[in-house]
Amino acid sequence: MNFEILICGSDVNAYYMARCAHEAYGIKSYMLIKDKLVFTTCSNIINHIYNPDIWNEDGFVKAVNDFCKEKKDRKVVVISSNETYGQFLVKNKNSFEDNLLFNYPNLDIFENLINKERFYKNYSNMGLYFPKTIYYKKGDNFSFDSLTFPVIVKPANVVLFNHIDFLGKKKIYKIKSMDELTETIKILNNSGYDDTVIVQEFIPGDDSHLFDSVVYCGKDGKVKFVSFAQIGLQEHNPNMVGNAAVLINGFDTFETDKNEIKESIVSFMEKIHFRGFAEFDLKYDERDGKFKVLEINARQGRCSYYIAQCGLNLVKIFVDDLVNGKCKNYGFIDNKVMLTFVNKKIIKKYIKNDKFKKEALKMYRVSVNPLVYKKDMSLKRRFYLFKRLLNYKKSYKKFKW
């Protein structure tokens, strides 16, 4: 083969992309990491490159270029597992070595998606439905008296928020009263986060009202596939809310007509000239029968490995498009596939939608966990995965959503 895979990041997303590379080509990916996380560092399908400077833009560019120079006789397909490294790639696309290949949208589109204020404002008339949203910035003299609780509070600037640590930090805040909203705004104002805060209506419904759609747009700007999976259970840990714990593609307990939302997604992505992978986070609103877009990640999502189980290896799609120039048009992916990070006991106890729960228990034996790869099960990884399941049990018992 005339290419190498370089993955930037060390999270679940990064691990399953390395798994995809190993499944497709039998190769070890190179992984550029800032933090030594257990499920990647104890893997035997990854070549680790530890560099604490890559969270800084200049340090990241240098590290990627150093790798490309070392592999100067080969193509290097680079994949980011988070917004920060994706933004660094897009901003510095003219500063990298000639053998580096990646497929991401231009900087303006990328930043419109990762900044939630720009996202909701710039794309409000492009065929997608959004929850009702209010924007607040530190120092604004604004009254929230018109709000109906509960509401959702989240940072508009995800990249900035990810670089800040403070007591009480959560990925998303679900607020039940004006006093709680006032206190949360105060915490954010004092945290060092000084950009816009999103205050948004909470769309009624349990976790089974959440849906996940993964899209790939080729370097030619055309949508190559769209998936649509129902989430039965999301993570309930405050730092992980919004991430799916159990989902089933090709299944929908509400039996909705998804043609409108599928066509809207394809039309939207091609209108904005998107490139690469994107993940839509949606919630079904039974009040009007519409799928409301909560956000769009300009990358594959944490749970997107189910696409590989539908027969579309995510790394192979990148390689086919960027290296081989022969990316196929796969259309709508409706294979019935279940992905889960948790065990049967948690499914039985915490999934509220009985119809989804019944289907999940029936499919559990043939489900896939992105972290459980039979060719990468050292004793250390087995111990880690066992401990992870115990932590899930504690987490769901402790945190409610």
Write up this protein:
It is a single chain. With 401 residues, the chain is an alpha/beta fold. The protein has 3 domains: 3-104, NAD(P)-binding Rossmann-like Domain (Rossmann fold); 132-201, Dna Ligase, domain 1, CATH 3.30.1490.20; 207-398, D-amino Acid Aminotransferase, Chain A, domain 1, CATH 3.30.470.20. It is built from 14 helices and 17 strands. It has helices at 12-25, 38-41, 57-70, 83-91, 107-114, 116-122, 158-162, 178-189, 259-271, 306-309, 314-322, 344-350, 354-363, 379-398, and strands at 3-8, 29-33, 46-50, 75-80, 100-101, 133-136, 151-155, 173-175, 197-201, 210-217, 223-227, 229-234, 244-249, 276-285, 290-297, 331-333, 337-340. The strands form 3 sheets. Strands 10, 11, 12, 13, 14, 15, 16 and 17 form an 8-stranded mixed β-sheet that branches. A 5-stranded parallel β-sheet has the order 3-2-1-4-5. Strand 4, helix 4 (83-91) and strand 5 (100-101) form a beta-alpha-beta unit. Helix 4 packs antiparallel against helix 5 (107-114) and helix 5 packs across helix 6. The radius of gyration is 21 Å and the shape is globular.
